[in-house]
Amino acid sequence: MFPAGYFAGMTLDDGRSWFGGAMLVKDGPRPGTVLVDGGLGELPRVGLNLLYHAGRRLPANAQVADLGCGAGVSSIVLANALLSRRNLSGRIFCVESWDAAGQASLAAFWGHTRGAGVDFLLHPLAMPAGEAAGRFRAASLDLVHVNRGCGPAALAPWWDKLRPGAMALLLEPSCAAGDGWDAFTEAHGACLERGGGFVRLRRPAGETLTAACA
């Protein structure tokens, strides 16, 4: 049961978002940043588009881990992608330490996501990503998005949490040039795509690499 008011002003006719006005996206004050519903995110426009379209392809009841979500910009993008597909049964686990070391506070996260009208889809986990990985069963997630941290080390604790055929997405520009991806791909039979500031990997849907890339 959703609280009264969540569905006020929603539209169902454009296929992009249920909310009147959808996401408000503007260029941020620095290159590689965007303002989404007034919140600043370290996310280039191409990354925002990749993340949104990845979210739109998720199945019903999708389970998503958004690692290093900070003030919630990437979580808002993913939530709007779910809403655009009427996927109200999806769940986004927003992982962030929210410590005193300069990260966005949990209160700021809730203020931002409630203002965007998507908080009912979000489930924050206030802990480091490596610790949070232990909270999930193997093969329980449909998408893992890594906001910060590059290379296979950032993804390794989460790889077995992906369902067969599910995807991991890393959007930092330096990730695509990082070392170790070829070895990671060979070891796990993953389908790898990288370039333009992103790394995208898919867990094998079957026993072979060909099945993963289909």
The number of domains is 1
Going across the biggest sheet, name each strand in turn.
6-5-4-7-8-10-9
Order of helices and strands: EEEHEHEHEHEHEHEEH
By CATH, the architecture is named 3-Layer(aba) Sandwich
Query: How many strands appear in the DSSP assignment?
Result: 10
Which oligomeric form is depicted? single chain
The CATH class? Alpha Beta
CATH topology, what is it called? Rossmann fold
Tell me roughly what share of residues is in helical segments. 25-40%
- CATH-defined superfamily: Vaccinia Virus protein VP39
**Nearest-integer average pLDDT:** 79
Q: Decide which structural class fits the backbone.
A: alpha/beta
Strand percentage lies at 15-25%
Shape: globular
Q: What is the first-to-last residue Cα distance? A: 38 Å
In summary, what is this structure?
The chain has 214 residues and is of the alpha/beta class. It has helices at 45-56, 73-84, 106-115, 129-133, 152-155, 181-188, 209-213, and strands at residues 25-27, 34-36, 39-41, 63-67, 91-96, 122-126, 141-146, 162-170, 191-194, 199-202.
Question: Would you mind describing this structure in some detail?
Answer:
- This protein is of the alpha/beta class and 214 residues long.
- Helix content is 26%, strand content 22%.
- It has helices at 45-56, 73-84, 106-115, 129-133, 152-155, 181-188, 209-213, and strands at 25-27, 34-36, 39-41, 63-67, 91-96, 122-126, 141-146, 162-170, 191-194, 199-202.
- The strands form 2 sheets. It has a 7-stranded mixed sheet with strand order 6-5-4-7-8-10-9, with helices on both faces. A 3-stranded antiparallel sheet has the order 1-2-3, with helices on one face.
- Helix 1 (45-56) crosses helix 2.
- 42% of the residues are buried.
